Amino acid sequence: MKIKVGILFGGDSVEHEVSIITAVQAMHYLDKNKYEAVPIYIDKERNWYTGEELKNMETYKDMELLKNSLPKVCLTKKDNEFVLIKTKGIFNKVVNTIDVAFPIVHGKGVEDGSLAGYLDTLGIPYVGCDMLGASLGQDKVVQKQIMQLEDIPVARYVWFYESDYNLNKEEILKKINKLGYPVLVKPARLGSSIGINYVKKARDIEIALEEAFTYDEKVIVEEAIENLLEVDCAVYGNHEIMETSLIGEMISTHEFLTFEDKYLNGEGKKAPLKKMGNKTSSSGFKIPAQLDKKLENEIYELSKKAFRALNLKGVTRFDFLINKETKQVYVNEPNTIPGCLAFFFFTPKGISYSKLLDNLITLAIKEYKEEKKKISNFESNVLSTYNGSKGAKGKLL
User: Fold this and answer.
1) Residue 387: inside a domain, yes or no?
2) What are phi and psi of 280, to 5 degrees?
C-alpha cells in the first residue's frame, strides 16, 4: 500500500506563488511506486482545498475558477486517521486521508512555525522543522543572535521595530551610519529577497526603511560585505544525522540575489522548471562553486553547526557571504523550506530529486515513531480534587 503524502502549499504570504511552483514540482518528482501525493492548497484567504487538478501548473492560471471547482476542506484527526473533511454542506464528508504531511510553504504565516504548530497539535508526522526550528529560521534577527552565541560568524547588523523607529528615528539612523555604507535593509521575517534594498548612501536609507516596513514591523539592517562572493550550501537531516550538498556560487546581475534572479528570467516570466544537472542552474547558482579546499570545508562545518544550533530538520539551504580578499566567511541566513527544496544542490552528488524527497519523508516517519516512545502525559486526574467551580481556591499541587 502506498504512503499518502499530504503536500501543503500556498498560504497568506508574499511568497504564495513561489510555494505553488515548488510544490507542483515536488509532486511531479515524488516516487509514484511508493507514495501517493495528496495536494492541499491554502489560498491567500487561508482556505484549504484539495483535488487532483492541483498537481497541474496550468490549473493556477484562473484561481477563482480553481477554487469554485474544488472542495474546501480542513485537516483533522478522526478515528486514528488524519482526514481531509469537506467544510461546505450539511454533512462533514471525508474527502481523503493522509499518512504524513509535507509542508512546502514559504514565508510569514506558514513557514514561520504557524503550520508546524498546527500539525504538532494534530499529532501527525510531518516533514521539516518543528515549530521552534521554523520560527528561528524565519526571523533574521533571532537566528543571528543564536548563531553569535554559538560562535558562528555573522555580518554586523542593527535591528528594530517600526515603533522604535518612529520614536527614536535619529538614534537608529546613527546606529546604521556606524555600520558604514553600503548596507542591506531587510524585512526581518520574509524570504525570497522580497522587500530588500541595497543602500549605497545615507540619503537613501529612509526610503528603503519605509519600504521594508510595508512588509514587516521588524527590520534588520546589515553591513554589506566588501569583495563579496555569495555561496550556498544545503543540509538535510536532523541534529543527529546531517548530509551536506555541494556548494553553489550565486550568479546575479545585482548587488544581491534578487527575487527576479531566483524566480524570473529577464523578460519577467517564471523561470523554467527543468532538471538541474548543468554547472549553472536556472535558479542562479553555479554548482559546484570554485573554492579552495580549506574554504570549502569551513562552509560545510558551519552549515552543520548552524543547522544544529537553530534546531532545524528536513532540508535547509544556507546563504554564505565571503570576503574574497580576506577569506572571511559569514553565515547570512537559513532557508528552512528552500525553493525547489534545493534539490539541484544534491543532484551532482548522486542524490536525485525523487531520492531527496524519499529521504525527507522517511526521516519524518522515523522521527515520529521515535517521538511516540517518549512520555508526553501522565495517567492522572489532578482536576478530581479541584473545588474551583464553587468559588473556592482549589489546590492543584
Assistant:
1) no
2) -115, 125
Helix (H, G, I), strand (E, B) or coil at 210: helix
What separation in angstroms does the CA of 369 have from each of 90, 277, 364, 376?
Answer: 36, 35, 9, 13
pTM, whole model, 2 decimals? 0.87
Q: Is residue 383 part of a domain?
A: no
Confidence of residue 67 (pLDDT cuts 50, 70, 90): confident
Task: Examine the domain organization and report whether 337 and 353 are in the same domain.
Answer: yes
Say if 378 falls within a structural domain. no
> Is 260 inside any structural domain?
yes
Q: What are the tens digits of pLDDT across the range 140-171?
A: 999 999 999 999 999 999 999 999 999 999 99
> DSSP string spanning 167-191?
HSHHHHHHHHHHH-SSEEEEETT--
Range of the domain at 166: 156-223
Taking the C-alpha atoms of residue 124 and residue 81, their distance in angstroms, rounded to an integer, is 9
Where helices occur in the chain by DSSP H, the ranges are 16-29, 63-69, 114-122, 131-138, 140-149, 162-167, 169-179, 205-213, 259-263, 293-309, 343-346, 353-372
Query: Facing residues of 320 across strands?
Result: 231, 331
On whether both 99 and 202 belong to a single domain, the answer is no
How far lies 10's CA from each of 39, 41, 171, in Å? 11, 6, 39
